[in-house]
Amino acid sequence: MKTVGFIGLGVMGFPMAGHISKAFPTQVYNRTLSKAEDWAELYSGSIALSPKEMGTSCEEIFLCVGNDDDVKEVIAGDEGLLSSLKSGSIIVDHTTTSATLSREMSNICIDKGVNYLDAPVSGGQAGAENAALTIMAGGDKDSYEKVCETMGHYSKFSKLMGSSGSGQLTKMVNQICIAGLLQGLAEGINFSLKSQLDISDVIEVISKGAAQSWQMENRWETMSLDQYDHGFAVDHMRKDLKIALEEAQKQGASLEITKLIDGYYKDIQDMGGNRWDTSSLMKRLQNND
Ligand code: NAP
Questions:
Q1: CB 128 within 8 A of CB 17
Q2: Does any ligand 1 atom lie closer than 6 A to the CB of residue 66?
Q3: What one-character-per-residue DSSP string does 151-209 give?
Q4: How far is the CA of 252 from the centre of ligand 1 (A)?
Q5: Regions in the chain scoring below 70 on pLDDT
Q6: Rounded to an integer, what distance in angstroms lies between the CA atom of residue 205 and that of residue 163?
């Protein structure tokens, strides 16, 4: 049976690798070794001490690290995967990065006979824990089909969107749509509270109509309770919005609201909310009232 490799055991990667380990022999690597040790106490699998070491034992390797630089280091650094991976191996990158990075990594990998898929995810910490992520992939069709079985152990839906970088472009659309929506939801809840309406009654009614959204269903209550520790951090969102804004500039696409909301998230970082979740737009609003 194949051994599957997983690199990056953070909020998302830790449970994703856990699901894989229930189906296949699994090897994990994380920059901070103690997280890999914690993982190996909870799940069955081995620990690699570098991506290079993992490349000698695995031919299907999944990443969920932080940003473009992390992906570059794991793949093409001195101790990176490409220094040891066999030709025909596949790297699946679940990190949210720029599409430029995906194309660059894909080209470097192809030179070594390795396939690289960009495959960012949506669904947050709960989606990773409950094996209910959505995956949007870019790259070679044969490679995508080969890794679908493994990805099926932690996702509820996945789709190949096109050539390399298409997964990341789709993820940008996802973040663009979420940014404005969350601000609208924050304004609606804040308005309800100021108007002395019963917020749970308001949500009960409007969530059955055209204003309904995942964010409304899953975040209205915690937002009205001033609780913002639900997974996707403001720092990660700013990284994602920067990527989207830069890509939009290249494409000549206007992102007026996204630009505005990115500035609001900067305000939240200035308030000390780097690790608060993205629904903390509500806290900024109340702070300014
Ligand atoms: P996180 O909690 O910060 O975890 C990132 C993990 O990657 C950490 O364990 C980190 O190791 C490891 N790492 C970073 N650079 C590394 C390197 N060079 N070599 C080895 N390991 C490295 O982040 P996360 O929330 O899981 O998010 C991961 C990615 O998924 C991000 O791109 C994020 O934008 C995206 N995403 C997150 C969510 C969410 O809800 N959290 C949802 C969708 C997409 P250390 O322990 O050393 O820091």
A1: no
A2: yes
A3: HTTTEEEEEEEESTTHHHHHHHHHHHHHHHHHHHHHHHHHHHHHTT--HHHHHHHHTTT
A4: 30
A5: none
A6: 42
* Residue 129, both tokens: 């824990």
- The token pair at 267 is 């305000």
**Rounded Cα–Cα distance for residues 188 and 207 (Å):** 12
Q: Which of 171, 239, 242, 259 is catalytic?
A: 171
State pLDDT tens for residues 255-282: 999 999 999 999 999 999 999 999 999 9
Q: Of 218, 239, 255, which is closest to residue 124 (Cα–Cα)? A: 218
C-alpha 87 to ligand 1 mean position (Å): 27
Contact assessment for residue 216 and residue 203, using Cβ atoms and an 8 Å cutoff? yes
CA of 47 to the centre of ligand 1 (A): 17
Q: CB under 8 Å to 21, separation ≥6 — which residues? A: 43, 44, 45
pLDDT the model gives residue 1: 81
- For residues 277 and 228, the answer to whether their CB atoms sit within 8 Å is yes
DSSP, collapsed to helix, strand or coil, labels residue 118 as strand
CA pseudo-torsion sign 111, 87, 51, 128: positive
- Per-residue pLDDT reduced to its tens digit, 167-194: 999 999 999 999 999 999 999 999 999 9
Q: Which of 78, 177, 234, 236 to mutate to test the pocket of ligand 1 (most atoms within 8 A of CB)?
A: 236
What is residue 9's predicted lDDT score, i.e. its pLDDT?
98
pLDDT at 108: 97
Between CA 178 and CA 174 the distance in angstroms is 6
Q: Tell me how far the alpha carbon of residue 226 is from its chain's centroid.
A: 24
